[in-house]
Amino acid sequence: MEEFFTGRKLYGDDFTSDEIQKWFEEEKLGYYELGEHRTDPSDSFGYEKITILYLYNKILKTNRQFHKVLGIGSAFGEEFLPILNKIDELTILEPAEPFHRKEINGHPVTYLKPNADGIFPLKEKFDLIICFGVLHHIPNVSKILQEIRDHLVSGGFALIREPSISLGDWRKERKGVTKHERGIPIKWFKQKLIDLELKLIGLSRAMFALTGKIDRILKRSSFQTRFGVVMDWCICKIFSWNDIYHPRNFFQKIFTYLQPTAFFAVVTR
Length: 269
Description:
The protein has helices spanning 2-5, 17-27, 30-34, 48-60, 141-150, 186-195, 209-218, 226-238, 250-255, and strands at residues 66-72, 87-93, 103-104, 107-108, 110-112, 126-132, 152-163, 199-208, 260-268.
């Protein structure tokens, strides 16, 4: 397990088809069940301001309209609200059927159930693909990244947000997370993009660990205020050198309080 805890390899990425299927069945309702079967999407996203800063602002500078847009594991689809007026056709791959809807704020949306093997159940290509906090729930991440590449038009964008820490020992039951989720190591992710000949045109480390712990105690979200997002950007710049994936001794555990816990990536082909 050492190579997985160091982040040199990603646990689950080399699973057999049977292992992938089992993981898929056990995880497909995990996020929905964590939300206590919520049915109101109005306040469920929680990352608008930080997502706008690190991702949406990058693509909105192009001032383009996105004809076909794909969301991967987008739940209710509320993450599209900041750019909904820039989207013509929206499709979402979402395994949890309770999240499926016919429209988002009056905008039509098509929901499809994904395949466990990672092959997208559609043939068309997209101007924009969004995948926020989903890859760390999936075993065969390399396959999903390959599918993202194959379904992007030339010059299209993929926006990806993931935790960059292990989220604890995934072999044991953990509070507040689904059964199988584990973070995506940054160095592994960057190398995988190189292997797939995808261009990383923006990568930001964000969501400082100590801020998140204080927020949980105070029951607030610093990442939902402009001041909080700017402060997080400054602090994460200072501690960007700290990329411990999984702490394996006492000193590493101390340093996990002083690190960004997520990355926001803008990718193109």
